[in-house]
Write a structure and sequence with these properties.
The chain is mainly alpha-helical. It contains twelve helices and five strands. Strand 1 and strand 2 form a beta hairpin. It is globular, with a radius of gyration of 24 Å.
């Protein structure tokens, strides 16, 4: 098993003694470069996804829970329920555009790397669920209760894969029903009119489920875990400290070292001013998301009393 140093341990450069007996100790300059986990365009798409999802959640929930005081205040802040509906549709267009841009990017990346779909879908860095993901899930549960070691995760963990394909599910289910409600005259040429009522229920409940999942489970996995708390900025900066890579992705780190490709994935850290701006944006998104969870709980437990 690969031994991985803890992320909080700093890897010190070896002490080099001058060949002459001068007593002078030379320490090589420490390497502060970071591992580039996400390229620039993925970070942009993720930012678009965050903005559109937050907007969809706020406007959609203000309509769904319009009987609550917080939803009425939010709708007034947005310019009224009708205006909230327009904003909701605009955010949906942004979400669809982000999804399409991602799929196009995948196709272009395949052509650029001249890889086959088989190697992409079934290779070691696949995003498809594998038998090993199931084993790592069981291993993680044992690790949680102190019955085994922490699994040595690779490029993608099982929860990251779940989050990734949850977007595809949301686009298909929530997106299709949303388009049906947006253009009912067009769609009722092909489907029974009663399906509009079904689409309303599916769209509303699935959107509520997605919102609750993102602002609880996803937030915990990415930001609120003890080793990440209070925030993981990797998806925003694109960079991950090497110590963190060795701790969180030991199998990926070992593979990069063995292949000699680690060096080409290293860059200098983002400027401090950029990191501060990113953290401010992330804190705003995190605060809004957790506030929405509180509002949903209030609406479902206390609003009818």
């Amino acid at each position: 098993m690969t031994t991985v140093p803890h992320a909080t341990q700093e890897v010190e450069a070896p002490v080099v003694q001058e060949p002459r007996n001068t007593g002078v100790v030379i320490r090589p300059k420490p390497d502060h470069r970071e591992f580039v986990r996400f390229p620039h365009h993925y970070r942009i798409l993720h930012a678009c996804m965050i903005c559109s999802f937050l907007t969809l959640a706020l406007t959609g929930l203000s309509l769904k829970f319009s009987y609550t005081p917080w939803a009425a205040r939010l709708a007034r802040f947005l310019g009224g329920f009708e205006t909230a509906g327009y904003i909701h549709r605009f955010a949906a267009v942004v979400m669809f555009g982000t999804f399409i841009a991602h799929v196009v990017g995948l196709i272009q990346n395949k052509r650029h790397t001249q890889s086959s779909w088989r190697s992409i879908l079934l290779g070691p860095n696949t995003l498809l669920p594998t038998k090993r993901d199931g084993q790592e899930f069981v291993g993680t549960m044992k690790w949680f209760v102190g019955k085994g070691p922490r699994p040595e995760y690779g490029r993608w963990t099982y929860w990251e894969k779940f989050d990734y394909f949850a977007v595809f599910w949301g686009i298909v289910v929530i997106g299709s029903t949303g388009l049906t409600l947006w253009f009912p005259v067009f769609f009722t040429r092909f489907i029974p009119g009663s399906f509009i009522n079904v689409a309303t229920i599916i769209h509303s409940d699935e959107a509520l489920l997605a919102t609750g999942f993102i602002f609880t489970v996803h937030f915990f996995n990415t930001h609120l875990r003890p080793e990440k708390f209070p925030m993981d900025t990797t998806i925003f900066t694109g960079h991950m400290p090497l110590a963190e890579l060795r701790r969180d992705k030991p199998r990926e780190y070992a593979a990069l070292v063995a292949s000699g490709e680690l060096e080409k994935h290293l860059e200098e850290p983002q400027p401090a001013i950029v990191v501060k701006g990113i953290r401010a944006f992330a804190w705003i998104a995190l605060t809004i998301g957790l506030s929405v969870v509180v509002w949903i709980i209030y609406a479902m437990l206390f609003a009818y009393r």
